[in-house]
Amino acid sequence: MSNFTSVDELHALLTEGASVRVLDVRWRLDRPDGHAEYLEGHIPGAVYVPLHSELATHGEPSEGRHPLPSTETLQAAARRWGVRAGDIVVAYDDAKGLAAARAWWLLRQGGIDVRVLAGGIRAWKAAGLPVDTDDVSPEAGDVALDEIGGEALTIDEAAAFSASGVLLDVRAPERYSGETEPLDPVAGHIPGAVNLPTGLHLDPEGKILDRTTVLKTFASVGVTPGASVAAYCGSGITAAHTVLVLDEVGIDARVFPGSWSQWSNTPGRPVATGDQPG
């Protein structure tokens, strides 16, 4: 089964009255709170999910910008969203699925049947489908999540990963190389990591490219079926999208959720610059 759901498929599920819960996960680096945009128009029945407080927690800079929530925190959030045992969950955003992928990655670990809406809210509106402007507050759900965190790397595991596998840095090339760093105290990348921006797997509308193209892109940096793979980004959000795409083409991978924000705020960690792993 695909990790992605089309707008037609979602519309059919909603029309048929299927047990589906829709999550609006609008979040971007330049606009971390997407609630106002949600209220301007969202998929009918969709619940707004604040990524920073329900799909992440807060900690010291040395923990990164978006540390993982506990299983208990995520379960309480999922119940607030109205998720019940056996529900299908569909997450979307307005940023090519990058934020929605964080919900997918966490909820999948919790044992939920979760998918990402291909093309997000933009595809929904482009199809001429209706939007609502209410602030949805559903009846509390009863879902019980499995323990999460098993697919995450610690900072020490990330440091050693490239010795036996492929560590992907999925940020923009200029951040990987150290030419610029708009958010963190040090510019560069984890030594041994290879650069493969997650946007390379998407078309201009934010939908995943065909399987052959995606596999060829991954193979260009040594990622092939059966390889040991992990991904990181700035703060563990975009990396989840790369893992989503990898899973879609049959390649298992893990995420270093602390990512560069944790690495660069931890004294003593080595830094590589330039366009090579180093």
TrEMBL record:
Domain Rhodanese: 16-133, 161-272
CDD domains, per database record: TST_Repeat_1 (cd01448), TST_Repeat_2 (cd01449)
Domain of life the protein comes from: Bacteria
Keywords: Pyruvate, Repeat, Transferase
GO molecular function: thiosulfate-cyanide sulfurtransferase activity
Transferase is among the record's keywords: yes
Pfam family, one: Rhodanese
Keyword Repeat found: yes
PROSITE patterns: RHODANESE_1, RHODANESE_3
Protein name as it appears in the record: Thiosulfate/3-mercaptopyruvate sulfurtransferase
Organism name: Microbacterium saperdae
